[in-house]
């Protein structure tokens, strides 16, 4: 069993290298406070908070950093408020 | 109400983060709701070992300072759905961890999870004492080597004086996790014996984790070793430790002592 596992495994170092490259590129960028993803996150949330209370049940923020692109997903559940509409 | 565990050691690099991830995943694989919390502010690594480094939106300091709600900062594992991570801040310093803030976060986590596992930073300073502060159970990670054993003794002293439990006159439950145990070196008599370490530290043994490249492979691909290769020797040792943590009594096997002829020949050569 041991021998079989030894030969059937692929190398893990390339995965480590790729993960580190992505991570460090982002960390170096954010050290200078220029992390665009974080800036956008904060500004979007600030905009939302002008109109409704940010409730973690209703606003979810997900982020995935990638090699070429990162994705920021802000999911907002907007309550239907009839009185507000009239104002 | 969940149990709070601190994984601590005093000495750096002995395997706290590796063990936090492996034990956390093993508990969650059994269906328990688990959160692993990185207290190593400024030098976070638990996110990397868990393979969640690309998905950290908010961290512990953000929650303590009110920039984010706790539920927004929790990152759910992609493989085990009852496993969550709360990352440490990489950019702020540890002064941002306030005792009141930590208490609030731990209280909220205890209410929502079966296990709250705190990965302590090395040392005996603020970060380490805050990580152990609210623990019900302490896992003292030790390598069979003189400086690690000495630092563990120091940490045991802190656990008995600086934790909330200790201050309330209660006993904090302490377990020894012997990691990076090298069977070949033990055979040559160049490593402290398990019994020696146990006698010196005199706390019960939770498990012995062998030194293994499987641990390195797991951290390379960003998976706790119990998830990366559940049949590897370190994973099985962590699974056993998890069962003991749940209260089961299992016989302890010392790595390498059950090896057959094959293992003996190759074990010697590999050393
Ligand atoms: N059983 C093991 N076999 C082989 N390598 C191991 C084992 N346990 C840990 N390591 C390796 O030892 C190094 C330190 O491990 P880890 O980061 O878990 O320690 P730590 O106590 O959290 O360190 P720190 O004090 O810096 O936070 C890592 O490179 C890890 O892969
Ligand atoms: Mg660590």
List the helices and strands and how they pair.
The complex is a heterodimer of chains A (87) and B (271).
Chain A (H helix, E strand, L loop, with lengths): L1 H7 L4 H19 L4 H16 L7 E6 L6 E6 L5 H5 L1
Antiparallel strand pairs in A: 1-2
Chain B lengths: L2 E6 L7 H14 L4 E5 L7 H5 L9 H5 L5 H4 L1 E2 L6 E4 L12 H14 L2 E5 L6 H7 L4 E6 L3 H14 L4 H4 L5 E9 L1 H6 L5 H8 L3 E6 L2 H9 L3 H4 L4 H13 L15 H10 L1
Helix pairs in contact in B: 1-13
Magnesium ion binds next to helix 1 of chain B.
Into which percentage range does the β-strand content of chain A fall?
5-15%
Distance between the amino and carboxyl termini of chain B: 46 Å
The largest sheet of chain A is:
2 strands, antiparallel
| C-alpha-based Rg of chain B, rounded | 18 Å
Unreliable stretches of chain B, pLDDT < 50, 5 or more residues?
Answer: 260-265, 267-271
Mean pLDDT of chain B: 92
Written as H for each helix and E for each strand, in order along the chain, the element string of chain A is HHHEEH
User: Helicity of chain A, in percent?
Assistant: 40-55%
**Class based on secondary structure composition and strand pairing of chain A:** alpha+beta
Say what oligomer this is.
heterodimer
**SS-derived structural category of chain B:** alpha/beta
**If interface size is counted as residues with C-beta under 8 Å from the partner's C-beta, which chains form the largest one?**
A-B, 26 and 23 residues
Would you list the SSEs of chain B in sequence order as H and E? EHEHHHEEHEHEHHEHHEHHHH
Q: Let me know the largest β-sheet of chain B.
A: 8 strands, mixed
Number of strands of chain B: 8
Q: Tell me, what's the shape of chain B?
A: globular
Plain-language structure description:
The complex is a heterodimer of chains A (87) and B (271). Chain A has helices at 2-8, 13-31, 36-51, 82-86; strands at residues 59-64, 71-76. Chain A is α+β, with helices and mostly antiparallel strands. Chain A has a two-stranded antiparallel sheet. Chain A starts with a helix and ends with a helix. Chain B is built from 14 helices and eight strands. Chain B is globular. The N and C termini of chain B lie far apart (46 Å). The chains are: A alpha+beta (87), B alpha/beta (271). At the A-B interface, α2 and β1 of A face α4 and α11 of B. The structure holds adenosine-5'-triphosphate and magnesium ion. Residues 9, 12-18, 40, 45, 122, 179-180, 209, 211-212, 215-216, 219, 234 of chain B line the site of adenosine-5'-triphosphate.
């Amino acid at each position: 069993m041991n021998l079989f596992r030894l030969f059937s495994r692929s190398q893990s170092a390339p995965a480590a290298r790729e993960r580190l490259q992505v991570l460090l590129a982002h960390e170096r960028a954010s050290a200078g406070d220029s992390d665009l993803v974080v800036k956008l996150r904060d500004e979007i949330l600030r905009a939302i908070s002008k109109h409704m209370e940010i409730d973690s049940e209703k606003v979810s923020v997900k982020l995935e950093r990638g090699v070429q692109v990162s994705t920021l997903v802000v999911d907002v559940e907007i309550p239907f408020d009839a009185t507000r509409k009239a104002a | 109400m969940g149990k709070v565990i601190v994984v601590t050691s005093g000495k750096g690099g002995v395997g706290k983060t590796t063990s936090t991830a492996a034990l956390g995943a093993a508990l969650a694989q059994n269906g328990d709701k688990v959160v692993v919390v990185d207290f190593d502010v400024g030098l976070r690594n638990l996110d990397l070992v868990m393979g969640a480094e690309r998905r950290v939106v908010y961290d512990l300091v953000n929650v303590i300072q009110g920039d984010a709600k706790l539920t927004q900062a929790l990152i759910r594992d992609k493989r085990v759905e009852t496993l969550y991570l709360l990352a440490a801040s990489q950019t702020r310093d540890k002064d941002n961890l306030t005792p009141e803030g930590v208490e609030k976060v731990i209280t909220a986590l205890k209410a929502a999870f079966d296990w709250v596992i705190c990965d302590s930073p090395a040392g005996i300073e603020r970060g380490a004492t805050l990580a152990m502060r609210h623990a019900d159970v302490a896992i003292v990670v030790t390598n069979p080597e003189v400086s690690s054993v000495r630092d563990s003794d120091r940490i045991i002293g802190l656990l008995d004086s600086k934790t909330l439990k200790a201050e309330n006159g209660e006993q904090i439950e302490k377990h020894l996790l012997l990691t990076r145990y090298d069977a070949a070196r033990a055979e040559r008599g160049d490593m402290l014996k398990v019994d020696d370490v146990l006698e010196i530290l005199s706390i019960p043994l939770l498990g012995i984790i062998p030194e293994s490249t499987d641990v390195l492979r797991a951290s390379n691909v960003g998976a706790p070793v119990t998830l990366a290769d559940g049949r590897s020797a370190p994973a099985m040792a962590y699974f056993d430790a998890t069962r003991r943590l749940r209260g089961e009594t299992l016989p302890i096997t010392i790595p390498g002592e059950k090896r057959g002829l094959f293992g003996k020949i190759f074990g010697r050569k590999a050393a």
